[in-house]
Amino acid sequence: MVYQAKPFDPLTVKATRKDRVAYFYDADVGSFSYGSSHPMKPHRIRMTHSLIMNYGLYKKMEIYRAKPATKQEMCQFHSDEYIDFLSRVTPDNLEMFQKESVKFNVGDDCPVFDGLYEYCSISGGGSMEGAARLNRGKCDVAINYAGGLHHAKKSEASGFCYLNDIVLGIIELLRYHPRVLYIDIDVHHGDGVEEAFYTTDRVMTCSFHKYGEFFPGTGELRDTGVSKGRYYSVNVPLRDGIDDATYKSVFEPVIGKIMEWYQPSAVVLQCGGDSLSGDRLGCFNLSMRGHANCVNYMKSFGVPMLVVGGGGYTMRNVSRTWAFETGLLNNVILDENLPYNDYYEYYGPDYQLDVRPSNMFNVNTPEYLDKVLSGIFANLENTKFAPSVQVNDVPRDREDLGDVEEDTAAAKDTRGGSQYARDVVIERDDEF
């Protein structure tokens, strides 16, 4: 196999097939703060939402506020004592939990802040309810940008992540789907998700990330899983400065081969925005369209898909890219000129949608990438046969309050009908 990067044509990123999209957003999520000097800003989700609304994308999809995840739901993956700790610790009583803070890795990178448990439950609830709607065929794509926190472990916070909403979402999908594919385009390795499913063939994890003296330090090519899960963890270790054309020439062959051989019936795509050019903590050189090409490529397979957020520490770039990708998922190419929105001043001086690449040097040589791809394809040769699936009774669905029309006065306004009833009315393509 000879590696070849074709020039990246931004015009190839265009809408493909029409899907029913369910979008999950909780207005409270932007109010949480890790601290003024911390790079992780939940406010970016509020900025993204403002762009999505002002571009008129709400007319194209169903918008939901998910029911926050309960302790019982969180404990489907996390340990009881860890979730209990998250629910009780606050900045005011932190001194009482010094021993637990060390045990659960809560401190500098993962500080205790006001509303920490609520923040986790919003993130987890969106991914679980999105998965539940996909299970029941209520949508083709579910979006939860408050999710994507891929570093959290069973009993440990890590890399700004406390609750692994992705694992909870995949557990929900596994109740209906024999095989689930997880794809991670964050600049950091998706170690928490890989670790959770390292011994099973029912979930294949595929992470494209910077490797070599970079957090979390895991995700080399030969980490492929153990026991039944051997060869079902795929790692694509990349180097600094990877650009759109190079990324596309690695992403599409790897994912194309996985889709062909593994044949998942559901996909979870983590869209971490720290792989974009100019990120505060990242070292890749992807433009908005290069990043969005991954979303568009996955959409083209027509497999039920849960799309979640992740990293991204230059807020204006993350919000622009996630808004553009939301447009693609709704078959809309957004206008280059940003509409006026609540955070318009963040996007100066040009007030344009695009996130452009820089002149950063690409350290990923053709020889290196050829070696990586050859190793991945050799490992995938062992996964040609579909994995065995244990036959179980499907447990009761996660309660979905979105399907029940609320009669409360707060949900109604003078136009008549409930807020939910109005939200599910989607603008037809021939409306005007």
From TrEMBL:
A Pfam family matched in the record: Hist_deacetyl
Reaction(s) this enzyme catalyzes, per UniProt: N(6)-acetyl-L-lysyl-[histone] + H2O = L-lysyl-[histone] + acetate
Residues spanning the signal sequence: none
One function term, GO molecular function aspect: histone deacetylase activity, hydrolytic mechanism
Compartments, as annotated in UniProt: Nucleus
Positions annotated to bind substrate: 109, 159, 313
Entry EC no(s): 3.5.1.98
An individual GO BP term: regulation of DNA-templated transcription
Residues at the active site: 151 (proton acceptor)
Listed GO CC annotations: Rpd3L complex; Rpd3L-Expanded complex; Rpd3S complex
The protein's name: Histone deacetylase
Species annotation: Lachancea meyersii CBS 8951
Taxonomic lineage of the native organism: Eukaryota, Fungi, Dikarya, Ascomycota, Saccharomycotina
